[in-house]
Amino acid sequence: MFYHCLCPNQPIGRKLMIEVEHLSKIYGSTSAIQDVTFSVEPGEILGFLGPNGAGKTTTMRILAGYLPATSGTARIAGFDVHEQSLAVRQRIGYLPETPPLYPEMTVEGFLYFVARLKGLPAGDRTRQINAAIERCHLQEKRRVLIRKLSKGFRQRVGIAQAIVHDPPAIILDEPTVGLDPRQIIEVRNLIKSLAGSHTIILSTHILPEASMTCNRVAIINRGEIIATNTPENLESGLEGSGYELEIDADASAAQQLQALPGVRQVESILAVSSQGSIPLKENRTCLRVTSEPGTELGRDIVSALVGMGVGVYEMRRTHATLEDVFLELTTEEKNWEQTGGGEEAVVEP
Amino acid sequence: MGIVLGNIIAIYRRELQSYFASPLAYVVASIFWLLSGFFFAAILLGPEGVIQQTTQLDLNGQRLGQPAVSIDVPYEFLRIFLGVLGSLALFVLPILSMGLYAEERKRGTLELLATSPVTNWAVAVGKLLGVLTFFITMVLPILAFEAIGFSYASPPVQPSVPLLGHLGLILLAAGVLSLGMFISSLTESTILAAILTFALVVFLWVIDVIAKNLTGPVAEALSYLSLLQHYNNFVRGIFDSSSLIIFVSYIVLGIFLTAQSIDALRFQRS
Fold it and tell me: Is A20 within the bounds of a domain?
């Protein structure tokens, strides 16, 4: 049974690299994940975004073949993760939450071990190990014992072991946790450089990372996927984007602005966010104009203000960041579902 | 097939390498060598030792005018010494096997093994071979100083006698290590694994004692199952195929149970 898994038949023309359908994992009476459905195209980077305990690690572990699912299917490169486990394991690189490192081995020795474990042919081993070491900037630490490495380097060795055998699918569970800002940027660049020739799914609770690195983001909370889309779509779909103004007028200007088409709300604020706590000068008002989703109000606001003879000191666009999306989605799930933005449908941009 | 063998070799090498890099393993080996060296000297050369006893018997016999008793000194010595070695090994083996899986779980490296294209049993076989090889390197120096001792024997000692005895020791160790590996796969705590394996060893010893002191079908069955009894057969130079089968059965049982327990682990993991 094992041998036929090692030399499997080619799957029937599958376009998607990772397919997850109605995946659930239940422990006794609690469900870790429920009815999770998403897919990843070849060459794409999918971000799995969620607070701690949302079910990201559980999903990653099921995909990697470490945990069996209670129900649902998961397929990588067309092979079922449960039925054809060995075939899947040959095609994935996996970095768990804690990098699986042997403290008494050197970086090089460890990568050789992993290369053998993953079935890399002897002739290719040295070349691919060198490539992995170079990509992860580990050259100067080749002969160093792993237990002597700092956290940042250990994380890099963890990533190196996930890519050493050049797998088509790479699963990274919180790849930048515990790294300093410079190391985080390096890791992100590394991940981006891998896209295209590899398919990557990574989980994180660092929101800017998801929007910077990933093509698409799936937001998961309490075991359920609540949104899957590109970061831009998610950000622009959220209410709360608009402009902040500092003008020399009184509140009447606010009412006129409210009348503009596409304006959802105009409210007074204490200060434009860029100024922090600088006290407001006399006769100046700060307003926040919130636009309806999808409308761009900049020009209309300026025309209206000029028409009113109002002087503008500062006009600042406010974007909903992915953070706002995330907070909104994970605290007001009902609203999101009602406005129809939270379907699990995979939107192909 | 080549891939599976390659996997086993990779895991075997890593395991062996980790034993040679482990301070605990060196401490265990040192104590083993110290004690076995002490017993070697005591049993062979000491006042209660084989040589003295034989000389005494000879002298007594001469005084009483009886013909000289023919005693196979090397054989007697081996019988006693291997008995002691067996007991020493039983003390030491749980410490060697305790970390086989428990350490992997503690370090998080089991996740690497479980998500790589290797089967559970291949991992178990690789690990068992690794720890067994380490045990064999612990036994080799002892063989060496036995060889030196026996080179002074006349008539010369047939090498098959000590070799068979030590083969028995290694098979005994393999059986205990295999079961110890299974116990190690049940827990994350190496200390708990060591304690449980010690308990297993005591249990095996108790079975042996019961088998020796009872008669009847129960005693016979226990005697057949007892690892120590079969070890004694090897020590006495009796190469019985049923002994070999029992040893191999224990080894295979340990590997099988280990593979099952790792599987069961994933189904429960939280």
Answer: yes
